[in-house]
Amino acid sequence: MSFNLSDWALRHRSFVWYLILVSLLAGAYGYLSMGREEDPAFTIKTMIIQAALPGATTEETVTQVTERIEKKLQELENLKFTRSETKPGVATVYVELTADTKAPAVTATWQRIRNMMNDIKGDFPKEFAGFGFNDSFGDVYGNIYAFTYDGYSPAEAKHWAETVQNAVLQLKDAGKVDLVGTQDPIIYLEFSTRRLAALGLDATTVLNTLANQNAIVPSGVIRTAEEKVMVRVSGSFTGADELAATTLRVGDTFFALSDVATVTAGYVDPAKALYRYDGQPAIGLIVGMRAGANIQSFGAALDGVMKKMAPALPVGIELHKVADQPKVVEESVNHFLRALVEAVVIVLLVSFVSLGIRAGLVVTLAIPLVLALTFVVLDMMGITLQRISLGALIIALGLLVDDAMISIETMISRLEVGESLEKAASAAWSSIAFPMLTGTLVTMAGFIPIGLNTSAAGEYTISLFYVIVVSLILSWAVAVLFAPILGVTFLPKTMKHHSDKPGRVRSLFQGILRLAMRRNGSPCW
Questions:
Q1: CATH topology classification for 46-134
Q2: From the centroid of its chain, how far is CA 97?
Q3: Listed residue (39, 43, 50) closest to 98, CA to CA
């Protein structure tokens, strides 16, 4: 006699009921612990390499820098193409990897490119100033805040913004936290050529003297029997006024810097980036979350930090929320919950009308069971609740009740011909388990192209494939393992055989069907 899983479940009812209870509790825990995001993470397969050769012309930069970089990059097996922009003294090379490059291999490729550039660094002229790399195109900042400052300098506003930034970085799930729109302070020197000529000096000589005095160099160590004391002789400058009053010596000539130049403090002009909020100058605080974390929990913790820090800011510096991704994710999750409730209600109505109250209840109970097990598996796989996975769950809601409905309908048909409740329940395995499995596999096959897609779009939508496959397999398992137990519990021991004569609803449906078939595609009116 072959093994019958449904019959085994009936002979171990207490254990199976325990599994049902554990599945529901584990599913609730998995749902609450799953990460939440607005969109699934995916890897951008582009890198920017910048190289500087100060003083070189465009032609020299191309031959000495750009061509050497691009030639070396041809050694990459997964290189799709390179694109370069060359300006006098600056070369910018864009590196694009092939679409089939797996996400884990991208990071290793970026490190290999850095090593390759280090290998050819000795081939460049001695004036070469080095490389710069940018491969952080995948960073996502879900929360954005703005600090407006009235009556404060940009440097003072930056100080308070950094205070809040440090508090945010203490959060457990905080990722990258950056400031945008800050202005870097700078000191401007405007030399007077007339005064320099009177002293027999030039601007380059004065600047070299300032650089030597402002250098940080070791000054020695004083050793005693008990301790060692580091000696520092500091000539560094702390502000424009101190710099202007500095006495310099060139040869036998002593002079104050203010004698030959006007020294003023200011900010880099033009600014690298400016940030405005509601038409006012501001500093932006952009907050990212650790990969795989729950953005709703992180958003609540972030709001707590902001509520604590906002009152500590001085009058004139105000904190404003610009973007709130946790709210968007919350709306997406609520949309899924509404869809779940609607699906359960629809299944209830259809099942109660077509199968009766008891049979409809069994089919309806299969939905939370399948979803609970699905959440457990998805949490173990590291899949988060986001736009794609939530959409896949909504799609799966219309598919995962099919197997349970088939299983219960089989039990009802067996009961109607006089079989016992236990024998009718065990038929879920012996008569329909493998046909149901075949249908489930055929449905899953329709989503295989998504699972095999190695492009960026495939990486973005891969959770759709995983959710559909997991939920459909589990729906089959619930239909042959849990549905018989639910059927034995809720269905009556005997059921009256339906009359061969159709009822009113069935007769009406048959009439409409015959009419549609006779019309052969022509309008029925």
A1: Alpha-Beta Plaits (3.30.70)
A2: 21
A3: 43
**Are 36 and 63 within 8 A, CB to CB?**
no
Q: Out of 1.10.3720.10, 3.30.2090.10, 3.30.450.40, 3.40.50.410, which CATH number does the structure's domain 185-267 have?
A: 3.30.2090.10
Retrieve residue 176's tokens: 């990258």
Q: 5-33+356-514 with 46-134: one CATH topology?
A: no
The pLDDT value recorded for residue 19 is 93
Q: How many CB atoms lie within 10 A of CB 369?
A: 24
Query: For the chain, how long is the longest CA-to-CA vector?
Result: 123
| β-bridge pairing 46-52 and 228-230 | unpaired
| Residue 489 CA: distances (Å) to CA of 124, 147, 483, 516 | 81, 62, 10, 41
What residue spans define the domains of the chain? 5-33+356-514, 46-134, 185-267
Rounded CA separation 288/176 (Å): 5
- For residue 234, the model assigns a pLDDT of 60
CB 35 within 8 A of CB 378: no
Tokens of 125: 């002229």
Identify the pLDDT of residue 467: 92
What local confidence, expressed as pLDDT, does residue 285 receive? Answer: 92
Dist. CA 284–CA 134, nearest whole Å:
21
Residue 60: count of CB within 10 angstroms of its CB: 15
pLDDT tens for each residue of 78-98: 999 999 999 999 999 999 999
Name the strand (E) or helix (H) holding 37. none
3-state SS assignment for residue 200: coil
Phi-psi region of 424 (alpha: psi -120 to 50; beta: other; left: phi over 0): alpha
Return the CA Rg of the chain.
36
Q: Which residues pair with 144 in a beta bridge?
A: 286, 323
pLDDT tens, position by position, 326-336: 888 888 778 87
Q: What CATH number should be reported for the domain whose range is 5-33+356-514?
A: 1.20.1640.10
Q: Residue 276: phi, psi to the nearest 5?
A: -130, 145
Q: What is the pLDDT of residue 233?
A: 62
Give the per-residue pLDDT at 306. Answer: 92
Strand duo 174-180 + 143-149: pairing: unpaired
State how far the Cα of 364 lies from the Cα of 352, in Å rounded to an integer.
10
Tell me the HSE value of 301 on the side-chain side, using a 13 A CA sphere. 16
Residue ranges of the chain with pLDDT lower than 50? none
Contact of 268 with 186, CB cutoff 8 Å: yes
pLDDT of 317: 92
